[in-house]
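Late entry, evening session. Most of the bench is empty. Finally got around to the prediction I had been postponing all week. Sequence below, unchanged from the version circulated by S.P.
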Amino acid sequence: MRVLHFFKTYMPESVGGIEQVIYQLCQSGITHGIHGEVLTLSANPLPREVMVADHKVHRAKLDIQLASTGFSYSVLKRFRVLAAQADVINYHFPWPFMDLVHFTARMHKPTVVTYHSDIVRQKNLLRLYSPLMHRFLGQADRIVAASPNYLATSQVLKHFRNKTVVVPYGLDKSSYPVPTDTCVEGWRQRFGDRFFLFVGVMRYYKGLHILLEAAQGTGYPIVIVGAGPLEQELREQAAALGLDHVHFVGRLGEEDKVALLQLCTAILFPSHLRSEAFGISLLEGAMYGKPMISSEIGTGTSYINIHNETGLVVPPSDPLAFRAAMRTLWDNPLQALAMGQKAALRYEQLFTAEQMGRQMAQIYREVVAAKSAR
């Protein structure tokens, strides 16, 4: 069975949570008879086709970007050709331009919408987009949410409960590199054996400004991996607060990231808005057996991290509560170790790529069968 995934960004140019989910879907589907390909936009779309691991990526030229929405004049033709060859179209929401492409192409193939997040920040855009969004979601054969938490709290998904199913995102640990002893030792020499770790893109909803406030007066070593639009602002905030124990190391390769995941004491995940619908880097922490500190925002973060079991969950936008949670894990290493072990067990039970691939393969077959019957 051939599945076409359609989203505005993808590897190798863009590496984020949604891109990681699409990657894991394409790779994990292979053993279940699913041949996945990806159509995406690119500012530099040559070559037009590239291989990422075992799946093909088709790239159309990104012509303009408005309100985090990419537009392309050439993608419609590419979409029509590729969709005609596919058995199922897997759209990745939200991306308003994608809805326009769907209707303009007059698509009648079975469709699955992976619902990654509500639209949270662009309130004015949402008012304009809402009729198109509801029409698009209404036409989907199946909508997939990543956690029961998000399904229960989304004001959009409540209108489509009858066709929405929960399939948690999954990761394949074997697809991550095993860092060399030299790599691990290099980071150990730099940061020691006890430090907190954040991994992610520095976006508005990641709550890093809250983390920096929480770090005041603690002295706990904190390593921040990643880059993004708020990086300079956050570096200036850290400097103003005198946080010389907070270390910005920039964007790292996978080997270095894994080395830090293995070494760290706990994962910090201060995201405070619903734009953080799941938290792939939080899940990576669980996969490597680390306790977590996150905020209760009614999304998948609290499906990955269970309070007082796999880590600690605090109110959002509360630096004092976040600081207290760091103190608890720092002062109680045996408790932190036990939580990390439970986090790893929860990953194995719920969040492997094999489980996600198997469930999605079943959904693809169901929508194809239902469409054929009609």
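Two things to note before I forget:
Residues 175-350 form a domain with the Rossmann fold fold (CATH 3.40.50.2000).
Residues 69 and 313 are 32 Å apart (CA to CA).
Will write this up properly tomorrow.
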